[in-house]
Amino acid sequence: MGLKRGALFISALVIGLTITAGTAFAEQWYFYVTNATDAKMTGLYASEDGRKWGRFNLGSGVSAGKTVKLIWDSSTEDESCEQYLKATFSDGSDSKSDKFDFCEDLDDPIVFE
User: What is the pTM of this model?
Assistant: First the structure.
């Protein structure tokens, strides 16, 4: 499954993020994720270095075809804007990890296909 940017907006708050994010990240820093697969997204992970991963709290997951708004936890404020993202899905598949600059365009969703 690959990643690309698209546009849709449905909000969901992420709590308990224990990963890295960016010096510019404050409580208001967010991004959107669209699940364009046929399976529920059950895990979303971010990493500054591509080796050590932190997990977003997605609650019961992101249903196929849905877009959610994710808010970076304040614990991530001292980290880089550039982060790798990858996802896991209910069918057992994983996306490849891709690097994104989260200080750039925050309103165009990251699309997992």
Answer: 0.73
Buried (b) or exposed (e) across 49-80, using 16+ Cβ within 10 A? eeeebbebebeebbeeebbbbbbbbeebbebb
Give the bridge partners for 99, in sequence order. Answer: 84
Cα(110)–Cα(52) distance, integer angstroms? 21
All structural domains of the chain with their residue ranges:
3-112
Using one digit for the tens of pLDDT, what is the confidence trace for 16-59?
Answer: 333 333 444 444 688 999 999 999 999 999 999 999 999 999 99
Number of Cβ within 10 Å of residue 92's Cβ equals: 8
For the 3-112 domain, the top CATH level (class) is: mainly beta
